[in-house]
Structure formats: structure tokens, C-alpha cells
Amino acid sequence: MSGFLAGLCVAILPLLAAGFWLGRRTAHPQNLGGLGTPVEHATFETLHTASLAAPPLRAGLTEETARKSARRLRSLLGTDALCLTDQKQVLVWDGVGSHHRTEIMERLAGPLENGRGEAFPLTCDAPDCPVRWAVVAPLTVDDRVHGALVACAPRESAVLVRAAGEVARWVSVQLELADLDQSRTRLIEAEIKALRAQISPHFIFNSLAVIASFVRTDPERARELLLEFADFTRYSFRRHGDFTTLADELHAIDHYLALVRARFGDRLSVTLQIAPEVLPVTLPFLCLQPLVENAIKHGLEGKAEKCRLQITAQDAGAEALVVIEDDGAGMDPVLLRRILAGEVSPSGGIGLSNVDDRLRQVYGDSYGLVIETAIGAGMRITARLPKYQPGVHSAGRLTDG
């Protein structure tokens, strides 16, 4: 899908440049600057204008995004007026002749219903109004009409009809990308809710039971653990941001491990080796904690003797390398592959598959978890995190205040 969309964009814009823009600009060599031939200049201007119109449209079709992009789109077409509509109203009118809004919406019933473009004359009693003709090009996403792009001009023009159709298809591509972005956001939110649901019944019950066991024998210890529990749950159930920093995630893990140590005592030995320079690295929220919980659940709880857990975060050039390793009971590699593939979902398995999926969605398939394990041989989980990824940034440190 993404390759097709990119190809469509590449195909549309040079067509506009070579056709409509060339027809308007070749007579003005003084505008060429140092960009070479008129065709090269026209192509550059078209691509530049389109690049400025695209970002607002990537947020969907609303009054605000239509307002921000309409002037750029009108510049692409070189028309006296342009409007963008949804299914019910004109979202923005850019240019002259805004008194035609009502007439335009009345004439859009057919194109919005059947998804086919249309051109028609406008009725106007104002002798000085330059807008006499309208070209309607529907905006569609997944075969569903979201609205329309309407270009208005003094007279009928076959070139404008074709150009408006091409620009409308380009706008539709941006709206489709916006729809994909929104679907991705909803998926990430659902996955975070799934992780929170996993944390709730298992961890909260055990933590409260441990805290209760200290209330009579060691009230001060119970108070400290209650504060650790409060800090951890506040972080885990926060409602802002899909991303966090490695420092904040490790801080939450520290609260989590304090509660686990209170439960298991000397049976758990934890070693942390964290390079300070990777602490600001951004990563998906609740990305590492489920991996640590998995190590505790399937490591320490699966064996009677002492369990060692090691967490390292190293600077690896353009990446941060995070490794979570335990010497616990381990897992059958075949079962692990089925868990990551979503074929089975045993108790606690959602953590591994969820984190693996989220890393791949954010950074690409090459950034999934690397897991080494065998029955009785413990587990080593490696996560690679790019130090910088466009569009990935933390919502900021969650303070204790």
C-alpha cells in the first residue's frame, strides 16, 4: 500500500508541473532564477507548493486543516477561487466569489453520492464577479467520499478539469495517509491498554499482599512500599504520550523491582549497568517493564533457587542497546515463536508479543525483539532503540509532584 501511495504522488506532481504550471509560467523567464529550464522551474515550484500543503492534510479533513492547505492548493491550480468541503458543508473558501457557497453545496449532492467529478456553470447576478464556472473533484478514501475539492474559474476549461482531478487524487492520498496514522494511533493505544490490563490483576494483587504483610510487623517498610507502588502505578496508568524516555522507563522499573524484592527477598539478585548517555533516548511507553516482568514471572517464579536478573543499556553509536537477561527457567523456543506470531497467548505472553509488535510498528521490522532462550537456560532479550526517529518524541518526564 505505502509503495503505491508514494508512486501515485510521484506520478501526479510532475504531470501537474509539465501540464498546467508550464502553461502558466513559461511566458515569464524573469521568474526562472537560476533553476534552469522553464520545465525544471515549474516542476520545482509545484513540488514545493505541494510539500507545503501536505502536512495539514496529514491530520485529516477538518476546517482547520482545510484552511491551512486551501491557499497552497489554489496556487497549484492557479484558479480565482477554491473551496474544500466535507459531506455537509464548505470547510474553507479561498479566493473571490464566496457568495457561491450555498449554490456549490446544492450542486454537490450528486458528486458526493456517486464519487464522480463534475463541471457546471455558476449563476451569479454580480456583474463584477469573475467566478462563472466550477469544477468538482471528489475526495475519496477507501472508495468512500469524504468531501470535495471545487475549483472556480471565469470560464470552462478542459485543462482545469484534468488538473483539479489530479490535485484531488493527491489530496485523497494525504487523507488516506492520515487515516492510516489514526489507525496506527488507535492500535498503539489499544496495545497499551492490553499491557495495563496484564499488569493489573497479577502484579497489583501480589504487591498489595506484600504491603499488607508488613503493616503490623514493620509499618515504616509498609509505608515505603506503598509509595513505591503508588509511583509505579501512576506511571503505568498515565494518560499522556505514546512515548517516554529510557530514564523514566528505568525509573518505573526500579519501583517495580522494589516491590518484587519485598516479595521474594534474597531469591532475586538484580544488576543494572546503564550508560548515562542513553538515558534521554525515546522509546514506546511501557516497552521495557513488560520484559522485566516476563523475566521475573517465567524466571524466578519458575525455579526454587536464587534467580539473577541483569539489565544493561549501552551506547551503540546511532542506537541504544538494551538487554534484559535472567538465568531462570527459560522457555521452549518453539512455543516462543508461536507467542510472537500471535498463535498462542499463555499467561504473561502478551507482554513479549505486544512489545515486539510495537517496536516493529514504530521503528521498522528490523527493530523487533531478539530473544535467546531454551528450557532451563534462562532468557536473554535484546531491544535496539534508534537514538533519533522522525515523529518519535517523549511527552516529557513525569514528575513526582
Automatic annotation (TrEMBL):
Q: Which Gene3D superfamilies match?
A: Histidine kinase-like ATPase, C-terminal domain
The residues covered by the Histidine kinase/HSP90-like ATPase domain are 279-389
SUPFAM superfamilies to which the protein is assigned, alphabetical: ATPase domain of HSP90 chaperone/DNA topoisomerase II/histidine kinase
Q: Keyword Transmembrane: yes or no?
A: no
What keywords are assigned to this protein? Kinase, Transferase
GO MF annotations for this entry? Answer: phosphorelay sensor kinase activity
Q: Name one GO cellular component term.
A: membrane
Q: For this UniProt entry, which residues form the secretion signal?
A: none
Q: Which PANTHER family match?
A: SENSOR HISTIDINE KINASE YPDA (PTHR34220:SF7)
Q: What is this protein called?
A: Histidine kinase
**What organism is listed for this UniProt entry?**
Streptomyces pseudovenezuelae
